[in-house]
């Protein structure tokens, strides 16, 4: 939850208590959790471990929860009503306690630090230098680390308090050893510390205030206590009511049930909650750290990803909040790198890990968002045209094979990524001119026609087993051997043709392939058999077979290192249920089943997790089949998918499907006149009647000949557009030949490392990068002979 005011506080809930609290920015968690112990004569309980509570809000868009904990055998009830003060950097909590002799003990675990990109070796230091202490006058509790301070005050005041080191002298350890509060330490730290106070009254207010000094943190908390819960909650509700009045979501008139309309309204508010207040448009992927009890990752998911951010923008724009989507787009434009790409992920201030590989889908997504906003008739900032042009240049010079896929694990040709690149080039062409526009469209057409060359395999062992003609792979080319991420280093690479995922479903969703295309329907048969998981909540999918990103069988979290690396067991993702729902919608099927499944997979507060548990019930770890696992919750991408699926059901058109793409392709792969050869996507076989364009980001001279270096000549590359250079060999050049051989010489006089490249001409079979084992052996041997006898000039 957060307030729509001047406050810079975000608070999250889990297991009926306050979980991470962020301040002064949406990517800066300062509290690990703020829990509660309840105790009576001879007994004590930790509320989050009891896990017997109900949660309600006054409206799906007003995150003002009432949390009621029940001790059925102990005769207590604790009600907590947290609210972020819109006018101050304070989290205010109203509490009531009932039960004979029952007392409440708030327990704060501060984690104060300045969070930034860091190597894993640096992670343990974050939050480990905190100092905690008490004011002896009223037992007000403090913690600080450099310029970040937190103060916990109470009205009525705490009767006692204690500051201790976690797992040694903290309040929880006191209760676990002594069955009561027996320690009252006044100071602890520096180190990993915790604070605990005793409340003897049956009702009152708690204030968690933040500031750069202890005095500031105490002052804002005292001011919120003085304002009172009712006044603060009224201001909080008013801000969200005003924002929600701008939503234009489908409802019962469009055939959606009240449960669905409430869920998509809540999802819209959840997305808005993920935006920073001081930097409009900076939306983080999740206000969560996956498996946070097992890691001290300073980034978690509370960073900005272009993909996740653009998904939020598309959903909010479709929900009527185009102003939020424009802010998001403008923010992304401000963080674009000079060469046109975006970092894999970054903090709100733009800082990032420079060693992370670039994801081309994250370069394409902002262009898609800009194009969709223009289709809505929204005026965009003047900076957006420059953003689009720079992104198009980067895609043109670095596509179609991505440095890493959307799951951030493998490089290669992903149907998801290449499809987005094609759409981005078509969308970018509308604001380009001359050669740039012509080249962008020609490149998009060629990549679209060749998409199966990069990502599809026919006649594989899987296809023979499942009775299909072929299938799209998770990552190609399909001749590759893929070393799967999140697995021990000893695990052997897997053939690309044996790895399948849901990436291919974006082809019909974006309008690049007909949903009835047999290649699509065959792949759906394969993935249904290999990665579909039926749960009590409904059916969804794993990211891919052999995924290792998820809890172990015992429910312990993924981040723990085993055998020198991190690996676990991949779990199903609710957002993939949504992706299948979009496919059902575009093919005229029944997407409501998948929407119902997504709703059933939500947590107790109505939020969608990254993953759900698919094993047996493990109540001691709060894991139930079909319900949230220990991964991030909420995941903004998943909440976005829920909104967009409901809108697709109501309108019949996916939000991502651009009119310009439909007009150009009509869900059918084009026949492109020019085929572009580049190192990352070489043309092996050129169909009849096509022009071959050998291209490069650098000017060069093409040294070429035909049919094993006959009729050798040279030709200088010309500008193609978007910073690319190329030599075109048209029908007049190629007509009477069976093959062409070439090598490039750059302007500095240096020849490229390869001794030769070969393209077979006028080939009528389907082009493919896939080679069988026998073919691969023949090509390897032939390549060796060709290199020994190859024609390579020396000057």
What does this structure look like?
The structure is a single chain. The strands form eight sheets. A nine-stranded antiparallel β-sheet has the order 5-6-7-8-16-12-11-10-14. Strands 1, 2, 3, 4, 9, 13 and 15 form a seven-stranded antiparallel β-sheet that branches. The N and C termini lie far apart (68 Å). The protein is built from 21 helices and 33 strands. The chain has 795 residues and is an alpha+beta fold. The longest helix has 17 residues, at 773-789.
Q: What structural class do helix, strand and pairing data support?
A: alpha+beta
Q: Mean pLDDT across all residues, rounded?
A: 93
The major pleated sheet works out as: 9 strands, antiparallel
Which percent band covers the strand fraction?
15-25%
Mass-distribution shape: elongated
Tell how many strands the DSSP assignment holds. Answer: 33
Put simply, the count of helices is 21
Poorly predicted parts: 768-795
Spatial sequence of strands, sheet with the most strands: 5-6-7-8-16-12-11-10-14
The first-to-last residue Cα distance is: 68 Å
Helicity, as a percent range: 25-40%
Estimated radius of gyration: 29 Å
Topology readout:
Layout: E1 10-14, E2 17-22, E3 29-40, E4 43-46, H1 47-50, E5 53-56, E6 66-71, E7 76-84, E8 90-98, E9 103-110, E10 130-134, E11 141-145, E12 148-155, E13 160-165, H2 171-178, E14 187-191, E15 193-198, E16 203-211, H3 214-227, H4 229-244, H5 258-273, H6 306-318, H7 322-334, H8 360-375, H9 383-398, H10 415-429, H11 434-449, H12 451-455, E17 456-458, H13 461-466, E18 470-472, E19 481-482, E20 494-495, H14 506-509, H15 518-530, E21 532-535, E22 538-541, E23 561-562, E24 565-566, H16 574-586, H17 592-600, H18 636-651, H19 659-665, E25 674-677, E26 685-686, E27 691-696, E28 700-706, E29 710-716, E30 718-721, E31 724-729, H20 731-734, E32 739-746, E33 757-761, H21 773-789
Parallel strand pairs: 25-27, 26-33
Antiparallel strand pairs: 1-2, 2-3, 3-4, 3-9, 5-6, 6-7, 7-8, 8-16, 9-15, 10-11, 10-14, 11-12, 12-16, 13-15, 17-18, 19-20, 21-22, 23-24, 27-31, 28-29, 28-32, 30-31, 32-33
Helix pairs in contact: 5-18, 6-7, 6-8, 6-18, 7-8, 8-9, 8-10, 9-10, 10-11, 16-17, 16-18, 17-18
């Amino acid at each position: 939850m957060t307030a729509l005011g001047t406050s810079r506080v975000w608070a999250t809930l889990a297991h009926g208590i306050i979980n991470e609290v962020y301040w002064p920015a949406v990517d800066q968690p300062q509290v690990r959790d703020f829990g509660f112990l309840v105790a009576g004569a001879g007994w004590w309980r930790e509320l989050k471990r009891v896990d017997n509570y109900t949660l309600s809000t006054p409206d799906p868009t007003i995150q003002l929860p009432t949390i009621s904990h029940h001790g059925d055998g102990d005769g207590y009830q604790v009600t907590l009503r947290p609210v972020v003060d819109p006018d101050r950097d304070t989290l205010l909590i109203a509490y009531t306690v009932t039960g004979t002799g029952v007392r409440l003990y708030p327990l704060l675990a501060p984690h104060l630090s300045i969070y930034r990109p860091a190597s894993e070796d640096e992670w343990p230091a974050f939050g480990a230098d905190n100092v905690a202490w008490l004011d002896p006058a009223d037992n007000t509790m403090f913690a600080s680390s450099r310029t970040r301070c937190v103060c916990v005050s109470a009205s009525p005041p705490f009767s006692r308090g204690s500051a201790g080191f976690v797992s040694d002298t903290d309040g929880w350890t006191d209760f676990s050893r002594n069955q009561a509060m027996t320690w009252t330490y006044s100071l602890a730290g520096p180190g990993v510390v915790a604070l605990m106070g005793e409340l003897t009254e049956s009702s009152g207010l708690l204030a968690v205030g933040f500031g750069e000094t202890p005095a500031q943190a105490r002052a804002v908390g005292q001011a919120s206590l003085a304002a009172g819960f009712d006044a603060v909650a009224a201001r909080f509700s008013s801000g969200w009511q005003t924002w929600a009045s701008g939503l234009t979501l489908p409802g019962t008139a469009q055939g959606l049930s009240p449960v669905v309309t409430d869920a998509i309204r809540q999802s819209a508010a959840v997305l808005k909650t993920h935006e920073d207040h001081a930097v409009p448009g900076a939306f983080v992927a999740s206000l969560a750290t996956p498996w946070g009890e097992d890691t001290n990752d300073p980034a978690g998911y509370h960073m900005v990803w272009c993909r996740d951010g653009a998904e939020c923008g598309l959903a909010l724009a479709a929900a009527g909040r185009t102003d939020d989507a424009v802010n998001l787009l403008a923010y992304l434009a401000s963080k674009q790198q000079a060469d046109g790409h975006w970092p894999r992920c970054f903090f709100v201030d733009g800082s990032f890990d420079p060693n992370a590989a670039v994801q081309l889908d994250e370069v394409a997504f902002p262009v898609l968002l800009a194009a969709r906003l223009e289709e809505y008739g929204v005026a965009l900032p003047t900076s957006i045209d420059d953003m689009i042009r720079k992104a198009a240049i980067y895609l043109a010079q670095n596509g179609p094979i991505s440095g890493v896929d959307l799951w951030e694990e493998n490089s290669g040709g992903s149907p998801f990524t290449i499809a987005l690149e094609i759409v981005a080039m078509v969308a970018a062409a509308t604001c380009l001119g001359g050669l740039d526009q012509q080249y962008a469209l020609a490149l998009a057409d060629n990549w679209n026609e060749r998409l199966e060359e990069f990502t599809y395999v026919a006649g594989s062992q899987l296809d023979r087993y499942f009775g299909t003609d072929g299938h799209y792979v998770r990552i190609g080319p399909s001749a590759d051997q893929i070393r799967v991420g999140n697995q021990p280093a000893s695990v052997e690479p897997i053939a690309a043709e044996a790895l399948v995922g849901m990436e291919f479903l974006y082809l019909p969703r974006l309008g690049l392939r007909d949903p009835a295309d047999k290649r699509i329907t065959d792949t759906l048969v394969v993935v249904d058999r290999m990665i579909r998981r039926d749960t009590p909540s409904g059916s969804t999918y794993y990211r891919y077979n052999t995924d290792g990103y998820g809890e172990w069988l015992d429910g312990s979290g993924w981040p723990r290192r085993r055998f020198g690396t991190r690996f676990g067991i991949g779990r199903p993702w609710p957002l993939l249920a949504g992706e299948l729902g979009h496919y059902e919608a575009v093919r005229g099927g029944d997407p409501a089943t998948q929407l119902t499944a997504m709703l059933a997979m939500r947590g107790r507060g109505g939020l969608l997790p990254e993953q759900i548990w698919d094993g047996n019930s493990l109540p001691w770890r709060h894991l139930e089949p079909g319900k949230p696992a220990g991964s991030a919750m909420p995941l903004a991408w998943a909440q976005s998918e829920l909104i967009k699926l409901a809108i697709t059901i109501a309108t019949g058109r996916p939000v991502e499907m651009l009119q310009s793409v439909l007009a150009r392709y009509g869900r059918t792969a084009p026949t492109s006149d020019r085929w572009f050869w580049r190192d990352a996507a070489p043309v092996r076989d050129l169909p009849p009647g096509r022009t071959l364009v050998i291209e490069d980001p650098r000017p060069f001279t093409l040294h070429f000949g035909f049919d094993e270096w006959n009729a050798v000549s040279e030709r200088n590359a010309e500008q193609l557009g978007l910073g690319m250079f190329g030599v075109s060999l048209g029908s007049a050049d190629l007509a009477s030949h069976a093959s062409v051989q070439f090598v490039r010489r750059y302007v500095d006089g240096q020849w490229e490392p390869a001794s030769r490249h070969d393209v077979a001409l006028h080939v009528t079979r389907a082009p493919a990068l896939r080679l069988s084992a026998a073919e691969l052996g023949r090509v390897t041997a032939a390549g060796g002979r060709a290199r020994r006898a190859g024609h390579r000039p020396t000057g």
